[in-house]
Every structure is written in structure tokens, then in C-alpha cells.
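Let us walk through a complete example step by step. Step one is to write down the protein sequence. Step two is to encode the small molecule, adenosine-5'-triphosphate, as a SMILES string so that its atoms and bonds are unambiguous. Step three, shown after the inputs, is the structure prediction itself.
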Amino acid sequence: MIQLQGVSKQYTSGRGTVTALQKIDLTVNKGEIFGIIGHSGAGKSTLIRTINLLEKPTGGTVIIDGVEMTKLSSRRLQEERRSIGMIFQHFHLLSSSTVADNIAFPLRLSKRPEAEIKQRVQELVGLVGLSGHEHKYPSQLSGGQKQRVGIARALATNPKVLLCDEATSALDPQTTNSILSLLLDINRKLQITIVLITHEMHVIRTICDRVAVIDGGHIVEMGPVTDVFLKPQHPTTRDFVAQLAEDPETTLAETGAEASGRIRIRVTFLGEQTYEPVLFETMRETNVPFVILQGTVSRLKDTPYGQLLLELRVNTAEAEAAIAALRRRGLDVEVIQHG
Ligand SMILES: Nc1ncnc2c1ncn2[C@@H]1O[C@H](COP(=O)(O)OP(=O)(O)OP(=O)(O)O)[C@@H](O)[C@H]1O
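Step three: the predicted structure of the complex.
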């Protein structure tokens, strides 16, 4: 649905040149929720804004639904942009217009008949859960309600793609979750492709199917959220994953002195095996006593997972037999400390 090929962006001003994006290659599939995560200054905003060409790349190609956006005249670009909605961290609502008029704004711009606009606004108000608030002004709304107006306005022209620029960063955790549920609901109901940028791993974990990690204008890691989250490779990704839970490595370092000579493993369960007594059965079969040092059971979007840090109280040969048995049962086992 969205293809970025070798996209680069340099900002040039009196003070010199800043390279914000360096040869980004990225494909977002139709109907998926794709997250881009990075620290401040990594290039996230620039990247999401190159998708609808609010930021013109200095190199490379942007293709959306087969249309090469980077080649279009400004008139054609304006037309194509109607199929790409966008929401923002600070909502960007018209403060002197009501909820209904804010939502109607893009429809009036495209000169739709008033009767059609009225009906569409009613549908959208219902979709985002704002029925009864149509005649309020933005100053009378909470942050979450303002973002709901932003979402309804972005969806007014039935776009194929919704771009979310730090859409929950100005909201408290509870409101963040309600907006994330709304985005998930919209993605499922309308089959709209969503691309979001964030600096919060919680956002990625809750609604994204795939994620790209951006650092210094490069994509340093990309893949399904389950892979990237459970097996982070790059130090930046590890930092983000550590936002959510105490990293087992931290526990290891803290208890390192007393731990020499012990065998420690990290066992990862994914999907239905999370709820099966696989660990208990294997350890009973192989007769290996173990201690749980740390554990998490949670979800990555719809997929349950568990991660346990175990210490095996046996010799190396017995531990290896237990590890092989766990792997035979389909569990992912990483040896963290070997004797
Ligand atoms: N208009 C601009 N002119 C000059 N440099 C810019 C401009 N916009 C962004 N930059 C620079 O490009 C780099 C990437 O910025 P960008 O805003 O894309 O990062 P970001 O990951 O979105 O950061 P944040 O989360 O802080 O918004 C930074 O070094 C930034 O200073």
C-alpha cells in the first residue's frame, strides 16, 4: 500500500545542512497498523510527513496504492492527499468552529452538498463516540475528545491511509488507551491502513502489527511486533523494550555477584502455549529443579506471550538436556549465563 524507496531528507538553512532521513526503504501493507518508534530527533516526524509529502524528500520515491507521489504536479498531489488522513499530537482543530464544523471542514473544502455533509458528520460523530457533543467548541472538550474530533475529521473523506503523528503523546495513560482502542476499532471496521509515529513502546505493543525503529535517520530494526519486542537486536530497540518492564539483564547484573556458577535461561512463550503447563511438565520430566528470577505474562496486540528468567539448579549436562526438551516443545530458550 505504501512504499518508500531510498527516501532521504536534508534540511538546509543558513546554519548548515541537517540530514534527517538517510535512504529509508519501507513497505506498509494494506490494512495493517504500522508503527515507527524513535527517540527525539531520530527523524520520525520527518518520515511520516514524507508519506503525504508535507515534507518533500530530497531523494527517493514515495508510492501510495500504485501512485508515485513524488512525481505528481501540485494539483494532482492535492487530489491524492484526500485519500490520506492525518491526525496530530496537538489536534490542530479550528478553535472558533464547533465539533460538527471541524469534522465538516474537509468535506466543505471538496464542495460536497450540505445534505451529504450533514449525514456524514452524524455518521462520523457516532463512529468516534462523540454523539451529543456536535455543537460544542474545542475549548469545551477534554484532550481525548479533541483527538476524537481530529480522527473524525481525518476520516471524513474516506481515506485509504491514516497517518498519526504522536497522536497520544499529549494524553494521560487512560485516555491514551481509549484513543488506541478507537484506532484499532477503526482499522478493523474500515480496513484502513494506519501508520503512526511514537516514542512509547506501549503504543506499539497495544495496536501495531509491525514496527520500524528509527535512529539518527536510519531504520535500525524492522519486523513484526512479536519478533522485535521479544528479540530486540539493536541497542535502541532494547532501550524501548526496557521502558515496559525491568530488563532481565538488569536483574542479572544486580544479582551477579552471588550468581557465579549458576545456569540462567530466558524462556519465551508465544500464543496459546502461554496458557499451557509446558514448563512444569518439561521440568518434571527432566527432573530439573529451577527458580523463577523474573517473569512477565502479557499481550502483544492480540497475541499472548510470557517471558521467564529461570535459574537451573543442576550441572551443565542436566541443564542442557532440560533446555533441549523445552526447545523440542516449541519454546524459545536463550541461555543467558552458562555456569
Ligand atoms: N524544518 C527543519 N529545519 C531544520 N532541521 C530540521 C527541521 N525539521 C527537523 N529538523 C531536524 O531533523 C532531525 C529529525 O527531526 P524530526 O523532527 O523528524 O525528529 P523526531 O524523531 O520527530 O523528533 P521529535 O520526537 O523531537 O519531534 C532533527 O535533527 C531536527 O533537528
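Step four is interpretation. The longest strand covers residues 16-28.
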